[in-house]
Design a protein that fits this description.
The chain has 198 residues and is mostly helical. The protein is 79% helix and 0% strand. It starts with a helix and ends with a helix. Helix 5 packs antiparallel against helix 6. The chain has 8 helices and no strands. Keywords: Membrane, Transmembrane, Transmembrane helix.
């Protein structure tokens, strides 16, 4: 469905540009955007490599394991369906840790592995379980302590203070995470109530 939406938007934009006689500006915008995208990607590679390397050092040193142990009691309350010491919990904690450090690209493979394990726990059903919905909500709106990607983009555009957004990001992402958990719990409560009454 998303492919059709994007294709439709692209087609509407091209038809509108042709009717307005601004096709040359659209063409220039496409090439300028492509050039900037490559420059941003190269800038992001250096920062992501640094942070991923730092995460690997933290993993080898056992810091991530200690952090996972610290967060585990809270994670057990957020994901009560996941059995203790199940592989899914390890992937969930790794995914959330990567998101906390602003490493969305590193979090994605761990999130996929967590979803695979949660699907096995759900008996391979196509319908998402409570834990799968919660993980999706937290992965989308997770607390971010270090917005690595955004800082990298600001640095590539020669911002005078690229880290000025850290405190705002922590506050905004914290509010988003609390909101996501509250909405997740609210709809779970509604669904449970509906199932009990039927």
């Amino acid at each position: 469905m998303i492919n059709y939406i994007w294709a439709g938007m692209l087609l509407i934009g091209l038809v509108y540009a042709a009717l307005n006689g601004t096709m040359s500006e659209v063409t220039e915008g496409v090439f300028t955007g492509a050039k900037e995208a490559v420059a941003i990607c190269i800038g992001l590679i250096s920062v992501l490599t640094f942070w991923l390397g730092l995460m690997k050092v933290a993993e080898t040193a056992g810091i991530l394991k200690q952090l996972a142990k610290l967060v585990h009691p809270l994670a057990r309350r957020v994901f009560p369906e996941v059995p203790k010491d199940h592989p899914a919990m390890g992937y969930i904690l790794s995914n959330l840790t990567a998101n906390v450090f602003g490493l969305g690209n590193a979090a994605t493979p761990m999130g996929i592995k967590a979803m695979e394990e949660l699907k096995r726990l759900n008996g391979g059903k196509d319908e998402a379980s409570r834990s799968m919905i919660t993980l999706l909500a937290l992965n989308t709106a997770c607390l971010t302590l270090v917005p690595t990607t955004v800082i990298s983009i600001r640095m590539s555009y020669e911002s005078e203070a690229p880290t000025d957004i850290v405190s705002t990001t922590i506050f905004a992402s914290g509010c988003a995470m609390i909101g996501a958990i509250c909405i997740d719990r609210f709809f779970y409560y509604l669904r449970s109530r509906k199932e009990r009454s039927s």
